[in-house]
Amino acid sequence: MSDYRGPYRDRLYRSGNDSDLLDRKRPGRVRLDRIGEYGYVPDEYRSARSRPSRPRPEGHQPQRERVRLDRIGIDNTVEEYWSPGEKATGTGAQPAHKGRKSRKKTARKKIVKKKKKPAAGKSVAGAKKSIAALLLANWMVNRKKRSGQGTRKRKKVKGTSAVSARRLMTPEEKLKRERIVKTAKIFSMVYCLIFVLFAIELLRADILPQTMTCMILAVMSVLSLILFPTLYFNVFKSTRKIIAMGVGGFLIVVCLVLSFNLAGTSSFFSDITESDQQTENYYVVSHRNSDVKKVGDLEGKSVAMFNSDDVNYKNALAQLKSKEKVNYDKIRDLQDIGKRIVNKTLPAAVISSGHYEAICESDKSFQLNARRIYTIKVKMSKQDLSKNVNVTKKPYNIYLSGLDVNGNIDTTSRSDVNMIITVNPQTKKIVLTSIPRDCRIRLAGQKSAPPDKLTHTGIYGIAQTLKSVEKLTGLDMNYYVKVNYSTVKKFINAIGGIDVVSDYEFDTHGQAHYHFKKGKIHLNGNEALAFARERKAFKDGDRQRNKDQAKIMEAIIKKATGSYTILTKYMQILDSCKKYIRINMTQSEIRKIIKMQLAGGYKWDIKKQNITGENSFGQCYSTGSYNVYVLNPDKKSLNKAIDVIKEVENIG
Q1: Distance between CA atoms of residues 3 and 23, nearest Å
Q2: Cα(407)–Cα(526) distance, rounded to whole angstroms?
Q3: For 561, what's the count of Cα atoms within 13 Å in the CB-facing half-sphere?
Q4: Which of 177, 232, 359, 546 suits a disulfide with 188, CB 3.0-4.6 Å?
Q5: What separation in angstroms does the CA of 403 have from each of 99, 131, 382, 471, 487?
Q6: What is the per-residue pLDDT across 533-592, written as a single tens digit (0 to 9) for each?
Q7: If we measure between CA atoms, which residue out of 279, 278, 290, 485 comes closest to residue 372?
Q8: Separation between Cα atoms, residue 483 and residue 595, nearest integer Å
C-alpha cells in the first residue's frame, strides 16, 4: 500500500493533528494520508454509512491522497474493496470528489427536468415565475457547494451531543470536557446553596420594602433557572458552561456582599437596642502629694464619703468595704470635701464621677491637686423608658443626650448636648429643639431638693434626664438616643465629613485648638466636635453653642440620608457607631423607619429652635454649696418652643 501514501510520508501515514481524521470538505470519507500502516483504518473512524463499490472506466486516474470510507473492508484494509476493474488495471481507489460532482450534476439535471416550460398562450408573468424558480434552485445548489456541504444531510454521530458532529474528540479533549462538566456541576450546587442562604438572610433581616424584596428575589430566581440547567446537565457545550460559571460567579459575589451587609445590619440593631445596662463610676480621690497612692494604703485610715441618699453611693461603699477595711465619714457638702482634700486634712474621699467633675469645674485648685487612685464601677438598675407608637404613622419625640466623655457609652456622665427631636412621619417634618445644658431644672422625684443643671441630670442616668425634661416641658419623650464624643467623631468621619455654615470666625478654648472661618466650612469628626462644644468664644455663650449643635445635627441627617452615602459607606457607618450609641427603640420600629425611607426616598423638612433664658449664679443639687453658672429658662421662649412641637405633632 505504499503507492497510496499521501504527501505526509515522514509522519507514518498520520497527520500532525490526530483529531482531524475526517475530511471536512467531503463528509463520509477519510484522507488516505490519515490511514495507518498497511492501509489499516480503526473502527471508530469509519463512515456511519457504506455505499457499494461501482466500476470505473479504463484509463481513469484516481486522486491517491483520499479513499472512500465505504471502500474499507471488514478487515479494515483498502485493497479488499477495490472494484475488479481497478484491481486489474491497478488504477487504485476512486477519488472522492468525482463521485460527489457527478451526484450534484445529476441533482441539477433532475431539478431542471422538473421545471416545465410554460405552455403556449400562458402569460409572460408565468414564464418569469418559472425562470425565477429555476434560478433559485440553481442558487441553492451552488450555495451548498460553496459552504462545503453535500446535497445529502450528514447523520449525527452517536455520543457527540455536546460536540459538533463534524469532528471527533481526542482523548485530551474528552478529558478537558469531563473536567469542565464536573466543575460546572459542583459550581451549580454551590451557587444554589448560596442563593438559598441569601434569600433566607434577606427575609430574616426585613429592612427592605416588600416590593424591593420581591423584585430582588424574582430577578435572582429567573437568573438561577437559566444558569442551573446550563451548569448541571451535559447536553450543553463547554463554552456555554464556562460563560454560565462566569455569570454565576458574579452573582455569588453579589449575594455574599449583600448577605454580609444584611447580617451586619441585624448585628448593629441588636447592639444599639439591647437593654441599657448603665454603669456609674465612683472615684477614690486623694491629694497628689499624699502617701495614699493605692487602695491598700487606706488600711486603718478614715475615708470621707458624700452623704447622699442615692442607692448607687451605698453600692459603691459596699464594694469598697469588701476590698479594704477602713473607716468612713459622711460629709454633706461637696465644697467641704474638695477643700479638705486640697488641704490634706482628708487622706481620701469617695465621690461619683459627676460630683468629681462638678468640683473640678468650680474649684481649680482641686482639679490641679486631686488624684484618682481607684475607680469603682456600679451597675445601675434597668428601666423601660419607651412610650411606643406607630413610627410610620404617628408623630413622636426622641430625646438626644450627648455625654461629655469618650469611650464606653454605658458610662453615666454629664449631658452636654440636650435636644428634643420631634418627627412627624406623615408630613415628613422634623423639629430640632435645643435646651441649654446649664438650664436650671427640677429633678424628678426630688421634691424637697434644690434645682439642678440639666447637664447634671446625666450623672444620675438617662432616666432622670428624661423624667426631668418631661416635667419641664409637659411632653412625652417616646424614645431616647444616647451618644458621646466618640460617637460624633467616628460617625462624621465614616460619612466623609459634613458641611456647615459658621456665623462667626473664632478659635476654640479649653480643648484642642481649632480655628474656624466665617461662612461655609467642611468639618471632620474632631473639628465638628470642637465646633459643637465651643461657647467661650461667643458673647451669647451657651445660646450660640446650641445653634451650632443644631447645625451639626442637621448636617448629619442630610448627609446620612443621602442614598450615595448610605450605599457606599454602609458597613463603615454601622461599625463606627455600634459601640457608641444607645437607643430604646425596638428593632422592629427601626426597620419600619428604614423601609419607609427606602420606599419613598423622602426629603425631610427640618426646622431648628432654641430655648433661651437669663444668666445667673446659684447653688445646685449636685454642687452643694458651690455657686455655679446657671440659666433660668424664659417662660415665653419655653412655651413658644412647646407650641411649635405640638403644632408639628398635630399636623396630618
Answers
A1: 20
A2: 14
A3: 20
A4: 232
A5: 99, 98, 19, 21, 10
A6: 888 888 888 788 888 988 998 888 888 776 566 666 777 778 877 888 888 888 889 889
A7: 290
A8: 24
Beta bridge partners of 479: 398
Q: Which of 448, 447, 451 is nearest to 438 (CA)?
A: 451
Euclidean distance between CA atoms 330 and 333, whole angstroms:
9
Q: Which residues neighbour 255 within 8 Å (Cβ) at sequence distance 6 or greater?
A: 194, 195, 197, 198, 220
**Matching residue, cell 461501482:** 54
CA distance 113 to 436: 109
Query: Do the beta carbons of residue 549 and residue 532 sit within 8 Å?
Result: yes
Residue 579: φ, ψ to 5°: -95, -10
Closest CA to 553 of 428, 432, 438, 427: 432
Q: List the Cα angle 498/502/504 in 5-degree steps.
A: 155
Count other C-beta atoms under 10 Å from residue 54's C-beta: 9
* Percent of all residues in the chain with a pLDDT value above 70, rounded to a whole number: 72
Give the Cα separation of 107 and 101 in Å (integer): 10
Confidence of residue 379 (pLDDT cuts 50, 70, 90): confident
Among 109, 103, 79, residue whose Cα is nearest residue 93: 79
Residue type, 302: S
Question: Any residues with CB less than 8 A from the CB of 321 and at least 6 apart, and which?
Answer: none
Count of alpha carbons within 13 angstroms of residue 414, beta-carbon side:
21
Centre a 10 Å sphere on the Cβ of residue 581 and count the other Cβ atoms it contains.
20
At which residue does the C-alpha cell 469618650 appear? 406
Q: What's the one-letter identity of residue 63? A: Q
Higher pLDDT, 568 or 197: 197
Position of cell 460567579? 249
Strand bridging mode 605-610 / 429-434:
parallel
Tell me which residue of 296, 22, 3 sits closest to 164, measured CA to CA. 22
C-alpha cell recorded at residue 149? 456541504
630, β-bridge pairs: 616
Helix (H) or strand (E) holding 580: none
- Residues 82, 83, 84, 85: what is their CA dihedral angle, to the nearest 10 degrees? -110
Which three cell numbers, joined as nine digits, stand for 329?
Answer: 465619714
Q: Map residue 429 onto helix, strand or coil.
A: strand
Cα-to-chain-centroid distance, residue 58: 84
How far is 455 from 448, CA to CA, in rounded Å?
A: 20
Q: By CB neighbour count within 10 A (0-12 exposed, 13-18 middle, 19+ buried), where does 102 fall? A: exposed
Phi and psi torsions of 583, nearest 5°? -140, 140
DSSP 17: -
Compute the distance between CA of residue 27 and CA of residue 167 in angstroms, rounded to an integer: 10
pLDDT at 194: 94
Give the dihedral sign, CA 465/467/468/474. positive
Alpha-carbon distance 504 to 522, whole Å? 15
The grid coordinates of residue 525 equal 469628626
Residue 362 has which C-alpha cell?
A: 468650680
Please say whether the dihedral angle defined by the alpha carbons of residues 403, 405, 411 and 414, taken in this order, is positive or negative: negative
Q: In this structure, are strands 519-523 and 498-502 parallel, antiparallel, or unpaired?
A: antiparallel
Residue with cell 465651643: 534
Which runs of consecutive H residues, i.e. helices, occur in 412-495? Answer: 462-473, 485-494
Phi, psi (rounded to 5 degrees) for 187: -60, -40
Confidence of residue 37 (pLDDT cuts 50, 70, 90): very low
Residue 149 has phi, psi (to 5 degrees) of -105, 145
Ramachandran assignment for 213, one of left (phi > 0), alpha (psi -120 to 50 degrees), beta (any other)? alpha
Cα 11 → chain centroid:
62
DSSP 503-549: SS-EE--SSS--EE-SEEEEE-HHHHHHHHH--TTSSSTHHHHHHHH
